Amino acid sequence: MAVSVESIAANLASIRERIARAAARAGRRAEEITLVGISKTFPADAIRAAYQAGLRHFGENRVQEWESKHPELADLDAIWHLVGHLQSNKANRAARLFHSIDSLDNIELARKLDRAVAEMGIVETQQATPLDERKPLRVLIEVRLAPEETKSGVEERDLPKLAEAVLALPHLEWRGLMCIPPLSENAEDARPHFRRLRQLREGLAARIGRPLPELSMGMSHDFEIAIEEGATQIRIGTALFGARPQH
Ligand SMILES: *Cc1c(COP(=O)(O)O)cnc(C)c1O
User: Fold this and answer.
1) Domains, the chain
2) Residue whose CA is at the smallest distance from ligand 1 atom 5
3) Nearest alpha carbon, ligand 1 atom 11
4) Nearest residue by C-alpha to atom 6 in ligand 1
């Protein structure tokens, strides 16, 4: 697929403007909102073009795809997010390949990720890296707000238990919540889901007695609404890189 560096840079500039306007409407600062470019199905060149245009956060939805692209991009100082469903048997690979797992949705996966990071830490300790410089793996818990319409994420009723388990794992740094609302023609339909995610975040933060800074919500068609509802990370694929090939 041909990648136009100019079009990616222009798209990025226009998204940044839209972020600024949405933030202003909501009385927020644009700097509070991190743009995560979702590069699934796009080649390494497209990611590099976005990086050169100033983007620093990228998200992929499959471990295997990122495994094949990342060797070409090892020189970039970016933050790599996994935003797609992760099977527990790929936890080891994911812990090595990503800075943040934004789609954590079950206890078994959390434990496997924690163990994977611990084992990486042991390797580093053998190389004389001081213990306190070992970084925990950042995670967001993905919540399935409309269980009848969407597939991934933990259901609300199971969220407190998962949260408690994640908090007890020393190698994971739980930073907030993520959601993917049901697909809809009308972006406004996502608003109640975004609002609900924020309420859940606030409830949990109060319970654990510390802030949960991140709310990852909003995609190409509804990110402005997500920003109005408090998103701190928006995940943008199509509006940045163009239409994905149909499967
Ligand atoms: C593909 C994807 C996105 C980006 O979707 P666009 O509509 O192309 O912006 C965001 N989040 C997740 C989890 C995705 O899989």
Assistant:
1) 5-240 (3.20.20.10)
2) 237
3) 235
4) 237
Q: Per the structure block, which two tokens stand in for 110?
A: 């959390």
Tell me the pLDDT of the chain averaged across its residues: 93
- Whether 152 lines ligand 1, by a CB cut-off of 6 Å, is no
Pocket of ligand 1 contains residue 121 by CB under 6 Å: no
In b/e form, how buried is each residue of 198-237, taking b as 16+ CB within 10 angstroms? Answer: bebbeebeeeeeeebebbbbbbbbbbbbbbbbbbbbbbbb
pLDDT digits (tens, 9 = 90+) for 22-43: 999 999 999 999 999 999 999 9
**CB of 38 closer than 6 A to ligand 1?**
yes
Question: Residue 2: its pLDDT value, please?
Answer: 58
Distance CA(32)–CA(22), nearest Å, equals 12
pTM greater than 0.70 (yes/no): yes
Cα 219 to ligand 1 centre (Å): 6
Helices (H), the chain: 5-25, 44-52, 63-69, 91-97, 107-126, 159-167, 191-208, 223-228, 238-241
Rounded Cα distance, 98 and 82, in Å: 6
Q: CB under 8 Å to 105, separation ≥6 — which residues?
A: 85, 141, 142, 144, 152, 153, 154, 162
pLDDT by residue (tens digit) across 51-99?
999 999 999 999 999 999 999 999 999 999 999 999 999 999 999 999 9
